[in-house]
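Look over this entry.
=====
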Amino acid sequence: MEKFYWAPTREDRIGVCKGIFRSDNVPDDDIVKLVDTFPGQSIDFFGALRARVYDDELWKWIGEVGVDSIGKKLVNSREGPPTFEQPKMTIEKLLEYGNMIVAEQENVKRVQLADKYLSKAAQQVGVPVPEGCTDPNADNFDPTARSDDGSCTYKL
């Protein structure tokens, strides 16, 4: 079976983003500006961007309630489940959060590059590179491993 890889055009990306932000009432002009500001990002980036705005509302609630009281507010609360107002999605907020996500992506790239460099440097001087399972979702994840040896195991 042949794989199909979709390379969305600018118009495709704008259309998908209009769908992503439809219930948030983000104006079409703001969607265009958002897509044009982050042209190299995947469609998932814009979904993550939207989720980040909603996540902040949840973090505000946790700050108000207090970490120790979350369980009391969620389980068998006489007040009922918490309710949240729909956050306002302004272009300024979306651009700010978008730039934060891009900075996080760059940081991940730097860390990966540093790990790769250190791994090669260690090999050149004869220092063994710790191998093991590097997948944090695996049962036998080894946070000290710098090279994956294919030993990861998972519960089904």
Summary: The chain is about 55% helix and 5% strand. The helical segments are 10-20, 28-37, 43-65, 70-74, 91-124. The chain has a mean pLDDT of 87. The two ends are 27 Å apart (CA to CA).
